[in-house]
């Protein structure tokens, strides 16, 4: 097939991209004036097709013999920011193995108004004639011992620039290219007087995108040079902590830092982070435990300390506690590197000037894995720590549930866009002012620009919320319609005529007041609410509530409302197991304290009434969504906080075109990537056909809870389950599978009159900072009152449905408006949040698969 036939009638079409652009370049290169005769002769002979034709053209143009595409054959449609690999004047056979650089994968939309924003990304540049050059290193005669290889190589490093990365094998990386393709050094054997010949042969110049791991290692060295301590994945400055004395806490400033290759090239993602530490030491925690529960002191201390992270301020390092050495104390001695015995008390006094007051406290043990001397094997090194000198990190559960604690801490952790950018500039200035840190980067020719990257973003059109009776409300920049919801009837009201309130006798007043408020509220919601049956209990014991369930639950009952005197996890779990598994019925649990606030009683009652409407199958509002015969699915997984193997996978799919009715299912599994999605998908398809009489035309899956390292597993394990199900049903339904990531370090800032501000809801970024080889985009769906808004990252894993970027971006934004437990936009599409709530309820409280009779109700709100 003649290649020119593939490009007929292309004049009026937009310029080609990707492989089409590459083929266009080949075609322009092959077709020359006066070659008509030659072309006609070529048409007569059979020609290869598809990939074979592409390879044939590449051979004719000698593409494979160069390190990268030349400027002549690079299509004009390809982005100009694609890096040009370094060319070598004297090619070697290995050089022909390097592949041309792939073009940028772009998933761009066009709808909306354009605005200029910036992000917490900084470009990285490499000096001319520097980079990462791969060499093959050989020794004659052969040297087996790695330590000897290192010594021989180090003896000649001054002639090679003094900087290298060598793993002790045959691969050597240098930041500069040596003058010769093959360089031979004459060396002396470190242990013998024999001569050794070391030959270093150039293999290829590494593309910057292939050296991401190296660059991340370099920046880790920079963080250590700047004396930042690593806690988890991030680095923190212990010398600039901010005290919160009323709660015995301190907040450490720090950074999340990562280098990666994006559409705009190699960039550093830098985000300000904070770590909350307790000013309490491990010894103070032990003393508190022994005062409260002396009989179970060791068990409680081990439970709270083992596995926790502590910070030792004398060296600004963090350690994970692996054990408590109850039989040891600071009076014990250990051998130093000189072989002398010294006690822990003397050691800390001599080296750090620290005095240990409690000489009877036990020691904390940290196991560190290190390489054995002159070997690649690992061994465990025991590091003993003094509890008196170890600061605890992280907040306790009691602190997290205390509103005052979280509010005071948020003053330091929820920083504004201006403060976040200031912290970013401060880091760059610290690197530039530190000679050691700057040298680490300059040795590899790396330079950090002193400004964040500028981007072109788009703002989608604000959505219109549709309530009952056709009432429409145009959303504003705050995307909150709570006031409109309280003044209008709901979209799909459900009359409440048979319901029961179960309460303890001491909460009788609030229970009756709540019943009266509910009946008065029904008219404004567009529904009729009858008076409930009141069921009083003599006490608030768990058994009393459980026994009441068996007494009051019947087929005629629509919903049962429980009023609990206090927050009790055991009581809540016991009741939910009954009403979700054994005697399935929609239920609503309320804390009596919530109903005691007379100033907010109407707002609280309205919130509860709206939840009850959803749990009975009603709908609160909707949007204009033109996507008809589409099935939208949300998936999330809950993992046990106790480290149990079993996880809960929740699967939620729409049952109508207004996306107000959903089917919800749960599977129990033993890994993050679910193996049981097929079962849920089959049930969802059958339910959809039962309602509409046909299967959906397209299926869009929003998968939450998948990290960067799990994308390939998700594509290889989860996507095939959907594709195989569609084949088994012999359907022509197409699939679009999207991963949703909300725990990311990307931050986007708009330009305000007084400096950086948060972008408005509906802001889309799908260029420059998106991944080079992924179809992805960032969406800011919500408005935040404090701090900096975090965008949500969408990655399209597969798109056989051929959904356009504009359509997918708009759909994702619209779905962020349809979560019925919040009268505003949320961070992720509604089906993902529904799946999250369902998975949490089952994993945290129920522990079993809920009854199928509840599948079509939002019983978990």
- Rg of Cα set: 32 Å
What topology, given as strand order, has the largest sheet?
31-30-29-32-33-38-37-36-22-1-34-35
Average pLDDT figure? 84
CATH topology of the largest domain: Nucleotidyltransferase, domain 5
**How would you name the CATH homologous superfamily of the largest domain?**
Ribonuclease H-like superfamily/Ribonuclease H
Helix content: 25-40%
Work out the helix count: 22
Topology:
Elements: H1 18-30, H2 36-44, H3 50-61, E1 113-119, E2 121-126, E3 130-140, H4 146-155, E4 165-166, E5 171-176, E6 182-188, E7 195-205, H5 212-225, E8 229-231, E9 234-236, E10 242-244, E11 249-262, E12 265-281, H6 282-292, H7 297-305, E13 309-312, E14 317-320, E15 323-325, E16 333-335, E17 341-343, H8 344-352, E18 363-371, E19 378-385, E20 391-393, H9 397-400, H10 403-413, H11 417-433, H12 435-442, E21 446-448, E22 453-459, E23 464-466, E24 472-474, H13 482-487, E25 499-504, H14 508-525, E26 533-537, H15 542-552, E27 559-564, H16 569-582, E28 587-591, H17 592-595, H18 601-615, E29 630-639, E30 647-654, E31 662-669, H19 677-692, E32 698-704, H20 711-728, E33 734-741, E34 748-752, E35 755-757, E36 763-765, E37 775-780, E38 792-799, H21 805-815, H22 830-846
Helix pairs in contact: 1-3, 5-12, 6-7, 14-18, 15-16, 19-20
């Amino acid at each position: 097939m003649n290649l020119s036939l593939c490009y007929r009638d292309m004049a009026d079409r937009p310029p080609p991209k990707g492989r089409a652009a590459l083929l266009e370049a080949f075609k322009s290169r092959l077709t020359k004036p006066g070659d008509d005769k030659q072309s006609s002769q070529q048409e007569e002979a059979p020609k290869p097709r598809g990939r074979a034709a592409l390879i044939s053209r590449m051979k004719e143009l000698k593409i494979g013999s160069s390190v990268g595409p030349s400027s002549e054959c690079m299509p004009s449609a390809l982005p100009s920011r694609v890096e040009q690999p370094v060319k070598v004047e004297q090619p070697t056979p290995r050089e022909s193995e390097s592949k041309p650089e792939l073009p940028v994968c772009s998933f761009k939309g066009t709808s909306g108004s354009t605005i200029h924003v910036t992000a917490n990304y900084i470009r990285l540049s490499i000096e001319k004639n520097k980079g990462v050059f791969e060499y093959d290193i050989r020794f004659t005669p052969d040297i087996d011992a790695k330590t000897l290889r290192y010594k021989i190589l180090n003896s000649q490093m001054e002639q090679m620039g003094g900087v290298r990365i060598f793993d002790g094998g045959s691969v050597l990386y240098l930041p500069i290219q040596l003058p010769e393709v093959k360089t031979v050094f004459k060396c002396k054997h470190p242990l013998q007087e024999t001569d050794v010949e070391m030959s270093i042969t150039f293999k290829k110049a590494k593309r910057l995108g292939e050296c991401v791991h190296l660059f991340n290692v370099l920046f880790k060295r920079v963080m250590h040079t700047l004396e930042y301590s690593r806690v988890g994945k991030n680095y923190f400055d212990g010398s600039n902590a901010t005290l919160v004395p009323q709660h015995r806490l301190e907040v450490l400033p720090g950074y999340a830092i990562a280098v990666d290759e994006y559409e705009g090239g190699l960039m550093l993602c830098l985000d300000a982070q904070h770590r909350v530490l307790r000013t309490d030491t491990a010894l103070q925690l032990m003393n508190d435990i022994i005062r409260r529960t002396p009989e179970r002191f060791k068990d409680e201390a081990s439970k709270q300390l083992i596995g926790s992270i502590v910070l030792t301020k004398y060296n600004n390092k963090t350690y994970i506690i692996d054990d408590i050495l109850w039989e040891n104390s600071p009076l014990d001695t250990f051998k130093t590197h000189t072989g002398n015995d010294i006690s822990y008390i003397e050691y800390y006094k001599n080296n750090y000037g620290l005095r240990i007051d409690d000489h009877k406290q036990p020691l904390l043990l940290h196991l560190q894995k290190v390489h054995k001397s002159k070997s690649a094997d690992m061994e465990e090194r025991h590091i003993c720590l003094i509890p008196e000198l170890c600061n605890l990190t992280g907040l306790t559960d009691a602190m997290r549930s205390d509103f005052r604690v979280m509010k005071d801490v948020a003053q330091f952790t929820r920083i504004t866009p201006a403060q976040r950018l200031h912290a970013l500039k401060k880091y760059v200035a610290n690197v530039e002012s530190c000679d050691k840190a700057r040298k680490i980067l300059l040795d590899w020719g790396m330079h950090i620009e002193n400004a964040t990257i500028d981007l072109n973003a788009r703002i989608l059109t604000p959505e219109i919320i549709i309530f009952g009776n056709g009432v429409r409300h145009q959303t504003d920049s705050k995307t909150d319609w709570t006031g409109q919801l309280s003044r209008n009837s709901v979209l799909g009201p459900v009359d409440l005529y048979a319901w029961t309130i179960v309460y303890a006798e001491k909460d009788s007043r609030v229970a009756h007041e709540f019943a009266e408020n509910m009946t008065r509220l029904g008219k404004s919601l567009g529904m009729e609410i009858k008076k409930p049956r009141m069921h009083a209990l003599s006490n608030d014991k768990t058994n009393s509530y459980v026994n009441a369930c068996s007494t009051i639950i019947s087929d005629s009952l629509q919903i049962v409302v429980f009023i609990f005197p206090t927050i009790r996890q055991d009581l809540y779990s016991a009741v939910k197991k009954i009403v979700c598994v054994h005697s399935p019925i929609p239920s609503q649990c309320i804390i009596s304290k919530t109903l005691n606030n007379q100033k907010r009683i109407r707002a609280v009652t309205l919130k509860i009434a709206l939840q009850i409407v959803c749990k009975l199958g009603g709908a609160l509002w909707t949007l204009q969504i033109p996507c008809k015969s589409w099935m939208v699915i949300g998936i999330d997984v809950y993992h046990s906080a106790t480290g149990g193997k079993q996880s809960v996978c929740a699967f939620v799919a729409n049952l109508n075109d207004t996306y107000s009715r959903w089917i919800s299912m749960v599977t129990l599994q033993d890994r993050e990537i679910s193996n049981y999605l097929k079962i849920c998908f089959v049930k969802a398809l059958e339910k959809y056909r039962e309602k509409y009489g046909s299967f959906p035309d397209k299926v869009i899956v929003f998968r939450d809870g998948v990290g960067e390292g799990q994308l390939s597993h998700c594509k290889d394990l989860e996507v095939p389950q959907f594709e195989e199900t569609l084949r088994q049903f012999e359907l022509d339904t197409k699939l679009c599978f999207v991963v949703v990531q909300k725990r990311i370090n990307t931050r986007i800032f708009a330009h305000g009159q007084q400096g950086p501000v948060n972008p408005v809801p509906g802001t889309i970024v799908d260029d420059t900072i998106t991944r080079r080889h992924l179809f992805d985009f960032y969406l800011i769906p919500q408005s935040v009152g404090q701090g900096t808004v975090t965008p949500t990252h969408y990655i399209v894993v597969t798109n056989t449905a051929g959904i356009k970027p504009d359509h997918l971006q708009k759909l994702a934004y619209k779905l962020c408006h349809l979560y019925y437990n919040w009268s505003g936009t949320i961070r992720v599409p509604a089906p993902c949040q529904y799946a999250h709530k369902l998975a949490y309820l089952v994993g945290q409280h129920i522990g079993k698969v809920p009854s199928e009779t509840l599948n079509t109700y939002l019983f978990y709100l």
